[in-house]
């Protein structure tokens, strides 16, 4: 199967899944294709590293509103990029690596994802701090909503449109 055919078939299955119309018999094929699509994006992004450096999720550069309840106060900002595992933002101050802020992430469809996050990396850039956070406790439903959004976003940017 060629790349275009794979993407077309995956897009069709994904659309059915998002609409709640995926037949139970189609679910295994959809989950396998979803995993293959994610691995292809990871590979394309050059993120297929080994060991402790390995990333488990592809990232997309997209701004979504996020509210973080930090020790020094609430911070409203936008994501720089995000994945099924977490997101990066610019903050006015460094974050204590022991801190576990609450986060509210607002998806374009109006859905809010709420959970606790932890800092996985940070560095100073000019007078701001770029911090990357990992989700600690999203529900299965929230994870599915986020992954659905990420797949939608990635499929839109693949550049192959259905006939």
Automatic annotation (TrEMBL):
Family matches, as Gene3D superfamilies: predicted glycosyltransferase like domains (2.40.10.220)
Species lineage: Bacteria, Pseudomonadati, Myxococcota, Myxococcia, Myxococcales
GO MF term list: cyclic-di-GMP binding
UniProt-recorded name of the protein: Pilus assembly protein PilZ
Pfam families hit by this protein: PilZ
Residue span(s) of domain PilZ: 55-150
Organism: Cystobacter fuscus
Annotated TM spans: none
